[in-house]
Amino acid sequence: MSTDFSVEDKLGLLENTIDYFWTQFAGIVVLLMQLGFAFLEGGCVRYKNMQSIMIKVYLNTCIAVICWWLVGYGICMGSGKFAGTDYYAGSNFAGTKNYSHWVLQTSVGAAANSIVSGGAVERMSIIGYCFLSVAFSSFIYPICAHWTWGGGWLQDLGYIDLAGSGTIHFMSALGALVLTVMLGARKNRWNEKYANEFNPSNTTYICLSTLSLYTCWIFFNAGSTTALSGTMAYAAGRATTNTIIAGASGGLTLMVLHYYKNRNEKSKFSLVMICNGNLAGLVAVTGSCDGIELWAAFVIGILGGLTYWGFGILMHKFKVDDPVDAFPIHGGCGLIGAQFPGWFNTEKGIFYGHGAKQWGIQLLGTVVWLGWSVVLHAVVIFVLKILGLLNVTPEVEEKGLDYAQCGGGGFDYQLLPPILSAGGYENVKSAINQKQNNVPQFGQDNDQQQVL
Amino acid sequence: MSTDFSVEDKLGLLENTIDYFWTQFAGIVVLLMQLGFAFLEGGCVRYKNMQSIMIKVYLNTCIAVICWWLVGYGICMGSGKFAGTDYYAGSNFAGTKNYSHWVLQTSVGAAANSIVSGGAVERMSIIGYCFLSVAFSSFIYPICAHWTWGGGWLQDLGYIDLAGSGTIHFMSALGALVLTVMLGARKNRWNEKYANEFNPSNTTYICLSTLSLYTCWIFFNAGSTTALSGTMAYAAGRATTNTIIAGASGGLTLMVLHYYKNRNEKSKFSLVMICNGNLAGLVAVTGSCDGIELWAAFVIGILGGLTYWGFGILMHKFKVDDPVDAFPIHGGCGLIGAQFPGWFNTEKGIFYGHGAKQWGIQLLGTVVWLGWSVVLHAVVIFVLKILGLLNVTPEVEEKGLDYAQCGGGGFDYQLLPPILSAGGYENVKSAINQKQNNVPQFGQDNDQQQVL
Amino acid sequence: MSTDFSVEDKLGLLENTIDYFWTQFAGIVVLLMQLGFAFLEGGCVRYKNMQSIMIKVYLNTCIAVICWWLVGYGICMGSGKFAGTDYYAGSNFAGTKNYSHWVLQTSVGAAANSIVSGGAVERMSIIGYCFLSVAFSSFIYPICAHWTWGGGWLQDLGYIDLAGSGTIHFMSALGALVLTVMLGARKNRWNEKYANEFNPSNTTYICLSTLSLYTCWIFFNAGSTTALSGTMAYAAGRATTNTIIAGASGGLTLMVLHYYKNRNEKSKFSLVMICNGNLAGLVAVTGSCDGIELWAAFVIGILGGLTYWGFGILMHKFKVDDPVDAFPIHGGCGLIGAQFPGWFNTEKGIFYGHGAKQWGIQLLGTVVWLGWSVVLHAVVIFVLKILGLLNVTPEVEEKGLDYAQCGGGGFDYQLLPPILSAGGYENVKSAINQKQNNVPQFGQDNDQQQVL
Questions:
Q1: CA of A335 vs chain B CAs: smallest distance (Å)
Q2: Which of A31, A102, A428 lies closest to C432 in CB terms?
Q3: A122 at interface of B, judged by CB pairs closer than 8 A
Q4: What is the greatest pairwise CA distance in chain A?
Q5: What are the pLDDT digits (tens) for B422-434?
Q6: Beta bridge partners of C124
Q7: Which helix (H) or strand (E) is A253 found in, with range?
Q8: What's the average model confidence in pLDDT over B52-70?
Q9: Which residue intervals of chain B bear CATH 1.10.3430.10?
Q10: Which GO terms describe its molecular function (chains A, B, C) (predicted)?
C-alpha cells in the first residue's frame, strides 16, 4: 500500500474495505440461494416438470443479473424520489462502493425473482416467464427497492425493512399469487381422487434446499446491514442471531402443529412442514432482525409458523393452486414481517412504549406493496395472456413441460438399468399396465434432450 | 463512523470487528454442516427411513438453537468452574462479542447433536429423539463445552482441544454408541442373507455430504481460533492448512486399505470408504490443528483412517449395529484426536521434547468425557425407555418410519411416471411379484404426506 | 494484542490480516468446487458409472492436496524462473502469507485436476487415473502456475491471466482432450441407435453442480486478487461483478442458441445447455475479470457461449467422445479467455488503443500451454497405456465401472422398495424382459459395496 496515505487515511480505507467486503461477500453467498430455490421448487413439483422449473429459476437468475446491470441498479441506488437515474449499465462504478452494493442488490433481486417463479410451475410458458422476469427485474422490483433502501420516499418517511419482509417477500409473493390465479389451477388439482399426485415429489431435495437457504438467509439478513466497521458489527451480529432463532422456532412450530393435527394418522411427521416452517420464521424476521431482542425473534418465528399454517388453509379453502406454497410462506409471513419493526424494534416499537407511529409507516408501506405488486403484475401477466405466452397448451401440461418441451425429465430416464435394458419406459409401461387402473397416464417419450 | 473515536480506539474497534466477523462468519458456515449430516445419514439408511432421519437432523438443529439461546450459551460461556451462570436467554449480549460467539457455539452445538443422531436412525421414536436432543443441548454438551472453552476446570488445567476432537466428537459419539446399543440392532442386521439390504442406499448423497462437510469443517476448525487480528491470522492459517491435509490423507488411507482388502473382489473401490476416511482424518486433526506442523497433520490423517478402519472391524465383531458408522468415525478418531495435542503440539508435545505432562492432561480429559457421556446418556435414554419413547414398534421398524409415520418416502413415490400411471407401488409390486422370492417385503402405501 | 506494536505496525498487521483472510477464505470456498465437479460429471454419465467418476474426483482432490503440500506449492510459489525451489513439504511457512496462499493455490490446483477428470469418465482405470493425477498435481500444472503467478518467465514478460483462463482451463482441458482421444470413444457412442443412452442421466445434479460452481467461481476469480486492503477492494469488486455478468450472459446465450436450433422440436429448452453456457461464460471471463469494464464482461459471456457451441459441434463432427463436454467448455472458452486481457483490459487492451503487444504476449502464453500440456499429457498417458493402466477392459466398460469394480451403483440399488421386495434387479429385469428388444443389456449384480 502506498506510503502517500496517512494513518487516518489508511484506517478509513480499511474501514471501507471491511464494509465493502462484507456487503459483497454476503451478496455472493445470496446468489447461492438460487440453488435453494431451484431445488425447493423442483422437489415440490411432479417429476414431469422438475427440469422445467429449474430452467425457469436458472433463467430468472441470468435475466436478473443482466437487467440489474443495465437498469435495475440504477433505478434502485441512483438518486431520485421515485426512481434512481444514475449508474445505468455500470456507469460511474470505478473506485466506489457500487461494485459491492451491485453484487448484493443483484443477488437479492434474483432471489426476489425466484419467489415469483413459484407461481409459474407446471403450466406456464417458459418464454412467457422470461418476459415476466424481465419486467420484474427491470422495473417492478427495482422501484420498490429504491423506495425502501435507495433514498426513495418510503425510506424518507422512516419505513424500516432491513432485508425485505415487505419489499421483497410480500411484494414478490403477491406477484406469484396473481400469476398462479391467472394461470388457473393445474388439471385435477382439486379432484380428491388425484390428491396424492400433487404431493411433493422429492422431500430430500426440499431438505437440501431449505438447509442451504437457512445458511444463505443469515448472510442475506446480516449482510443487508452493508457495514461492519465501527459498532456496526453488533448490528450484524444481532441480525445473525435473530435470524437463526426465528428460523428454528418457525420449524419447531410447524412440527408441533402438523403433529397435533395428524397425531392419529400415518403422517404424524413431515419433513416438508418443518422445512417450510423454517422458511416461514426466516421470512417473518427478515424485516426487523437487526433491531429486535432475541426473545422477539423467538416469538416472531412462532408467529411466522402460525401465519404460514393459516394462509395454507385459506389457499386450500379458496382452491388457489399455489404449487410450492409461495404465498403462504413469502406472502403471509412477509405481510406480518413488515409490521414487526413497528412492534418489536427496541427504539421505535409499540412493545417498547414508542407508540404506533412506526407501525403506521409500516402499514403504509404494506399497502403500497399490495397495490403496486397486484396492479403491475396483473397488467404484465394480462399482456402475456393476450400474446398467448401465459399458459402452455393442455397437451403440454398433461405430458409435463419436461417431456413436451425440454427433451426429457430431470432424472427419471435411464434411472434403473433394468428399465433401460428392457427398452425404456414405453416397454416397462406396457409390461406393467396390465393392471392399469383409473389413474390417468401421463405420457413420456424416449427422446431425450440433445446435448448439442 | 463517529469522529469521537481516536485512531487507537478505531484501530481497536477494527481489530474487534475482524475477530467478531471471523467468529460469526465461521459459525454461520458451520450451521451448513447440518445439511451434510442430513445427507450423510440419509445416504446411509434404507430408503424407507430417509425422510425420518432428515427430520431428526432438522429437528435437532432447531432444538439446539432454542436450547443454546435459553441455557446452553449461558452454561458454556458464563463464568463458573462447573457451569456458567451468565448470558441465559440472550441476556447481556448488547455491544459484546457474545453475538458472534453465540453463533459459533450454537452451530457447533447443533453439529455435536447431529453426531448423536447417528445412533437413532431407522428404529428410534422421533418424539423420543427430540427429548434426547433437548437433554443433549441443554446440559450434556454445554457443560463439556464450558469445561474446555468457557473457563471451566479442564481449561484451567491446560487441556487443549481447539475444535473438539474429544469434547465434541468423542463425547457425542459415545452418546451415539450408548443409544445404538440400548436401541438394539435393526431386524436382520446380522443375518448374512440380508447383508446387502443394509448397504448405503445412496452413495451420491454421501459424497455430497462429505465434500460439503470437508469445506465447512475447515471453517469449523479455523474459526475456533475466534480471532484473526494481530498474529492470530497465522494460527487460523495453520489450522486451515492442517485440516485440509489431514482430510486428504485420511481419504487416501481408506482408499488404499479398502483396495488392498478387496483387490480380488468386484468392490475394489468404494466411494463411501473414501468419504468416511476423509471424515476420519478431519475428526482426528480437529483438536490439535492450530498447534502442529504440516507433516503431523499428514500423519494424523493416516492414523485417523487406520483408527476408523479398526473400530469398524470391532463394531462388526461385537455386532454393534451403528448404521452410519458414527462411533468408528467420531468416537474412534475423536479418541485419538484428543491425545494428539500431547504428542504433536510444537510447544507442548512429546515429539518436541516437552515430556508427557500435556498428554496426561489430555488423557484426563478423555476419561472425563468417557464417564460423563456414558453415564448421562445412559440415564436419559433409560428414562426414555421407561416412558416408551425409545424404540418404535417392530411393525413401524419393518415398514420404515417414513411409511409408517411420515406419510411417505424421501423420494421414491412418483419417481417413475410409468409406475404412477400404473396405479402406484401396489400395482407395480403385484405385477412384479410373480417372481417373489424369500426376501421379505417391507410394505408401502400410497398415502403420502399431506402438505397441509 | 500486544501493546509493543505501534499504531503503524498494527495497521500494517491488520492490512495483512485482511489480505490473508481474503485469500485463504476464497481458497476454502474454492475447495467446495470439487462437489460441483463431482456432481457435474456424475450427472453427465450413465448411472452405471456415477459412483466411479465421483471416486475419481474425490481421489484427485486428496491427491492434489498431498502433492501440493509436498512439491506443488514449492514449485509454484518458490523462487526461480522455470520452477520454484522453496517451500517444499510446508517448509518456511511459519509467520508468512504462505498458509493462506497455499490454501488458495491448492484448491485451485485440485479444481484444475478435476477438469482433467472429465476425459476419464466411464472407461479409464481408477488406478491409472490416480497416477495421472499425481503427475498433474506434482509438475504438469504447478510449473504452469509458477510461470503465470509465481514469478516465472511468462509473468516477467507481462502475461495476464488473473484466475487462469489459459493457465488452468485451457491447459487442463487439453489434458482432458488428450486423455479422451487416447482412451477412445465409449462403445456405441457414435452409433445413432444408441444416441439416447448417452444423454445426461441426471440433469438436476448438473443444475446443483453449476449453480454451486457459479458462486464458488466468483470467489475463485475475486480471491485470485489475493488482496483487499488499500484500494484492492475495488479490483476484487470488479472481478466479482464481471464474473457474475459473464456467467449470466453465457447462460442466456446458450438458451437462445438451443431454442433457435430446436424451436420445432420437443426439446426446445435444455437445462444442461443453460448450465453449460453459464460455465462457458465463467471460463471465458476468468483471465481478464479484474481489468475489464462491465460491458466487456457481458460481451465475453456471449463469446464464451458461442465458442462452447462451436467447439461442441466440432467435437461431434470429428467424433471425439468427450462425455462431459470438458474441452468445449474449458478448452474452447479457456482459449479465447486467455486472449481477452489483450483485447479488453482497460490499461493494455487493443479496444482501448494500446496496440497488440499485450495480445501478443497472451498468444505466446496460449501457444506455450498448448505445447506443454499436449506433450506432457501424451507422454504420461502413453506410459500408463504401456503399463496397462489406461483403459478398463471391454467387459468392465460394458458392465459399468460401478458394477464391475465399485460394488454397486450410485443410487440405483434399493431405490424402489417394490423392486427390493421382489428380490432385486435380476428378478425385476426378467419380469420385464419379456418385451426385451434390441437395446443391449448392461448387467448388474446384487452385490453391493461393503461398508467395511
A1: 20
A2: A428
A3: no
A4: 85
A5: 444 444 445 544 4
A6: C391
A7: helix A232-261
A8: 98
A9: 7-386
A10: ammonium channel activity
Q: Tens digits of per-residue pLDDT, B310-366? A: 999 999 999 999 999 999 999 999 999 999 999 999 999 999 999 999 999 999 999
The CA dihedral of B373, B377, B380, B383, to the nearest 10 degrees, is -140
Mutation target vs A (from C270, C279, C419, C433; most A CBs, 10 A cutoff)? C270
Distance of alpha carbon B251 from alpha carbon C62, whole angstroms: 7
Contact between chains at C269 and A11 (C-beta distance less than 8 A): no
pLDDT in tens, C62-75: 999 999 999 999 99
Distance (Å, whole) CA B153 – CA B38: 34
ipTM associated with this complex: 0.92
Q: Start-end ranges of CATH 1.10.3430.10 in chain A?
A: 13-386
- Give the model's pLDDT for residue A230: 81
pLDDT (tens digit, 0 to 9) for every residue of chain A, 452 residues total? 445 678 888 888 889 999 999 999 999 999 999 999 999 999 999 888 999 999 999 999 999 999 999 999 999 999 998 999 999 999 989 888 999 999 999 999 999 999 999 999 999 999 999 999 999 999 999 999 999 999 999 999 999 999 999 999 999 999 999 999 999 999 999 999 888 778 888 999 999 999 999 999 999 999 999 998 888 889 999 999 999 999 999 999 999 999 999 999 889 999 999 999 999 999 999 999 999 999 999 999 999 999 999 999 999 999 999 999 999 999 999 999 999 999 999 999 999 999 999 999 999 999 999 999 999 999 999 999 999 999 999 999 998 999 899 988 777 544 454 444 444 444 444 554 443 333 333 333 333 332 22
Residue with cell 427496541: A346
The answer to whether residues A63 and A133 touch, using CB atoms and an 8 Å cutoff, is: yes
Contact A450 C262 (CB under 8 A): yes
CA distance, residue C442 to nearest chain A CA (Å): 7
Nearest to B406 by CA among B125, B64, B34: B125
Residues near A242 by beta carbon (within 8 Å), at least 6 away in sequence? A221, A285, A288, A289, A290, A292, A294, A296, A297
Write out chain B residues lying below 8 Å of C16, CB-based: 233
- Residues A7, B7: C-beta atoms closer than 8 Å: yes
> Which of A58, A102, A205, A403 best probes binding to C when mutated, by most C CB atoms within 10 angstroms?
A58
Fold of B7-386: Ammonium transporter fold (1.10.3430)
Q: CA-to-CA distance for A113 and A67, rounded, in angstroms?
A: 11
Task: Output the CA torsion sign for C36, C38, C40, C43.
Answer: negative
User: Is A449–C18 a contact, with Cβ atoms under 8 angstroms apart?
Assistant: no
- Looking at domain A13-386, its CATH superfamily turns out to be Ammonium transporter AmtB like domains (1.10.3430.10)
**Cβ distance of B293 and C90 shorter than 8 Å:** yes
SS (H, E, C) C115-141: HHHCCCCCCECHHHHHHHHHHHHHHHH
Specify the pTM.
0.93
What is the distance in angstroms between the Cα of C17 and the nearest Cα belonging to chain A?
11
**Helices C98-117/C126-135 angle, 10° precision:** 140
Residue pointed to by grid coordinates 455500470 = A90
> How far is C-alpha C222 from the geometric centre of its chain's CA atoms?
17
Residue ranges of B 407-426 with Cβ closer than 8 A to chain C: 409, 412, 415-416, 419, 425
Radius of gyration of chain B (CA): 23
* Separation in Å, CA of B189 to nearest CA in chain A: 25
CA distance B387 to chain C (A): 32
Give the chain A residue nearest C220 (alpha carbons). A28
Contact B35 A212 (CB under 8 A): yes
DSSP A131: H
CB contact under 8 A, B420 and A435: no
**Whose grid coordinates read 443495465?**
A70
Q: Tell me, yes or no, if C383 comes closer than 8 A to chain B by beta carbon.
A: no
